[in-house]
Specification:
With 231 residues, the protein is an alpha/beta fold. It has two domains: 121 residues, Rossmann fold (3-Layer(aba) Sandwich); 96 residues, Winged helix-like DNA-binding domain superfamily/Winged helix DNA-binding domain (Arc Repressor Mutant, subunit A). 41% of the residues lie in helices and 21% in strands. It has eight helices and twelve strands. Strands 2-1-3-4-5 form a five-stranded parallel sheet, with helices on both faces. A hairpin with a 2-residue loop joins strand 8 and strand 9. The longest helix is centred in the middle third of the chain and has 16 residues. The protein is globular and about 55 Å long.
């Protein structure tokens, strides 16, 4: 039973969403503040977090950053009452894997939760059961173990970051449109969510020590998308 930590300050919304998630078979822990959410994170050990961006006291962005500092691999689904691009991009830059705009229908939230959980638990194919490790210069990608190292040091990646890197690096040199990556990594079909791709690429580059102007591995194809280049 997937464990969901719901952090939402509006009591009516919190109770309604928690009830809908429980009806879908989730084990739900709910918190009304960011501080309470961080406490529940340690005791409840969720599989995914649904985090309201607008919280009293400790802002949702700070909660997201604190959670990322504690666990880089925990899926975080950000909920925002505003559809403003700036708010959404800032939330994604803080470490959220995906987002929904409130008020959100229960079936939409459930679909997003299921998608982010699939990204977190998917098992990459192996060749005859033998782990496959691809090496690109100082970058090593263990496709079976879902781990990445840079210059021999582990690179902690969120589920969306890992899935994006696995997708791009599976076909070095191939150009992927933002729409293709959106569908492959996030399972979205709405083209407006391409900002998810851009924000995730920026986070991934930063963790890999990639220079923003002349990235070595993940290159931007202007007006189209991205490609992975093997040095």
């Amino acid at each position: 039973m997937p464990r969901v930590l719901l952090i939402e300050d509006d009591r009516a919304v919190r109770e309604g969403v928690a009830l809908a998630l429980r009806r879908q078979g989730h084990d739900v822990a709910a918190a009304g503040t960011g501080e309470e959410g961080l406490e529940r994170l340690r005791s409840f050990r969720p599989d995914v977090v649904v985090l309201d961006l607008m919280l009293p006291g400790m802002p949702g962005l700070d909660v997201c950053r604190a959670m990322r500092a504690l666990d880089q691999t925990l899926p975080i689904l950000m909920a925002t009452a505003r559809g403003d691009d700036v708010d959404i991009v800032v939330g994604l830059e803080a470490g959220a894997d995906d987002y929904v705009v409130k008020p959100v229908q229960a079936r939409v939230l459930e679909a997003r939760i299921r998608a982010v959980l699939r990204r977190a638990t998917a098992v990459a194919a192996t060749d005859g059961g033998i782990p496959k490790i691809d090496t690109y210069g100082e970058l090593a990608i263990d496709r079976a173990g879902h781990s990445v190292t840079w210059q021999g040091a582990p690179v902690p990646l969120a589920p969306s970051e890992l899935r994006l890197l696995l997708t791009l690096s599976a076909a070095p040199g191939q150009v992927f449109s933002r729409q293709q990556l959106l569908e492959a990594v996030w399972e979205h079909s709405y083209h407006g969510d391409a900002r998810l791709v851009d924000a995730c690429v920026r986070r991934l580059r930063a963790k890999m020590g990639e220079p923003s102007r002349e990235p070595r591995y993940i290159q931007t194809v202007r007006g189209f998308g991205y490609r992975f280049v093997s040095p």
